[in-house]
UniProtKB/TrEMBL annotation:
This is Adenosylhomocysteine nucleosidase. CDD domains: MTAN (cd09008). One of its GO terms (biological process) is nucleoside metabolic process. SUPFAM superfamilies: Purine and uridine phosphorylases (SSF53167). Residues 62-156, 278-355 form the Nucleoside phosphorylase domain. One of its GO terms (molecular function) is catalytic activity. PANTHER family: PHOSPHORYLASE SUPERFAMILY PROTEIN, PURINE NUCLEOSIDE PHOSPHORYLASE. It comes from Acinetobacter boissieri. InterPro entries: Nucleoside_phosphorylase_d, Nucleoside_phosphorylase_sf. The lineage of its organism: Bacteria, Pseudomonadati, Pseudomonadota, Gammaproteobacteria, Moraxellales.
Length: 361
């Protein structure tokens, strides 16, 4: 009898423990499910945030303004309200209000590579709705004057070349002009400069990435070698250009007058030009200047803008540039160039046009 009671007692304990275990298991599963639910919600929430805010530093829609030199940016920063500074990879970006528009202002640094890196940082870290480049440039057009502000319709980089051994049209892939097997394409609408043959630039963005931009012939098959687009130059945004045209007459009288002496003064103009040229080379050669003006239809030359235009295009951001002429490129015989360059007149004129444009947007 004692043994039976002992087994019964053990059985009751076992059943109670089993019930407790099942209850604990149910509670545990409930907690686990709640935990899983929270985890899922957090992941869903994070996913939603990432989909709607891809900007690393500031998601406020802004007009991005880039300048090459500190003096150009300082003139714009002096008019900026509600300033906030960001230091990104050692570069300073300043947000605020300019003519009651939300903007972000930064320096590109000199050179095509610095300009490209800066523009991509703007695209990654700020909700850049438009990009404006404000700065100085050398003139390619001898009809333009120092102090004029040139707003061109497109930008091109002539450093994209095929550098040949002779002046014959390259035929690296068989027929004359065919360099497709190298993943490259000549633009034969632009005449060569000695043995320098201009070639197009391959650009991929979120719109064109599935397009076949270039094929090469292997046997009887056309094999894709590049996707996106092959481009000669990068046009500025037509709506922004239209706005710039509207402020042309009203802003021109406010540009700073250029005087060589008391009796010889010039009132700078705002000029809607055809094409701007950018390269990593500093242009101090009059022969090459003439080539860029005559064959490229270039009006001004600098070392940054075409790179900014390309990165803006790759990020689907509307772009325009205002370049105030500081000298005639290649005219190193003029002793006044250095003095004028350091006077800041060109920089101030570019800033005036930029501010007027921002106000008109």
């Amino acid at each position: 009898m004692l043994i039976l009671f002992h087994y019964y007692f053990l059985f009751r304990i076992f059943m109670n423990l089993k019930k407790l275990s099942l209850f604990s298991l149910a509670i545990g599963c409930g907690i686990a499910l709640i935990g899983c639910s929270n985890t899922i919600n957090k992941k869903t929430l994070n996913s939603t945030i990432l989909q709607h805010s891809n900007f690393l530093s500031d998601s406020t829609p802004r007009i991005a303004i880039i300048a090459a030199f500190g003096q150009e940016a300082d003139l714009l920063l002096a008019s900026l309200k509600n300033k906030k500074e960001y230091l990104i990879q050692g570069k300073k970006f300043t947000t605020g209000l300019l003519e009651n528009k939300t903007v972000v202002i930064t320096l590109s640094g000199i050179s095509m590579t610095n300009a490209a890196m800066t523009t991509q940082l703007l695209a990654d870290h700020f909700n850049s709705q438009k990009i404006i480049f404000s700065g100085i440039a050398g003139s390619l057009n001898p009809d333009y004057h120092v102090g004029d502000v040139v707003i061109v319709k497109s930008w091109i980089a002539p450093n994209e070349i095929f550098y040949a051994n002779n002046t014959q049209i390259p035929s690296a892939c068989g027929s004359a002009g065919d360099i497709s097997c190298l993943g490259l394409k000549l633009d034969q609408n632009i005449p060569a400069y000695n043995t320098h043959f201009f070639r197009q630039t391959n650009v991929i963005n979120s719109i064109n990435y599935q397009n076949i931009a270039l094929t090469t012939q292997i046997g009887s098959k056309a094999i894709p070698v590049a996707y996106g687009e092959m481009k000669t130059d990068f046009t500025v945004d037509p709506i922004m250009l239209s706005t710039a045209t509207l402020i042309q007459k009203t802003t021109q009288p406010s540009l700073e007058t250029i005087c060589t002496d008391k009796n010889n003064c010039y009132q700078p103009k705002i000029i809607i030009g055809e094409r701007g040229v950018s390269s990593g080379s500093f242009l101090a050669n009059s022969s090459y200047r003439d080539y860029l003006h005559q064959q490229f239809k270039g009006d001004c030359v600098d070392m940054e803008t075409a790179a900014v235009a390309q990165v803006a295009y790759a990020n689907n951001i509307p772009f325009i540039a205002f370049r105030s002429l500081s000298d005639l490129a290649g005219a190193d015989h003029d002793p006044n160039v250095g003095a004028f360059f350091s006077s800041g007149v060109a920089q101030r004129n570019a800033a005036k046009v930029t501010i007027a444009f921002i106000k008109a947007l």
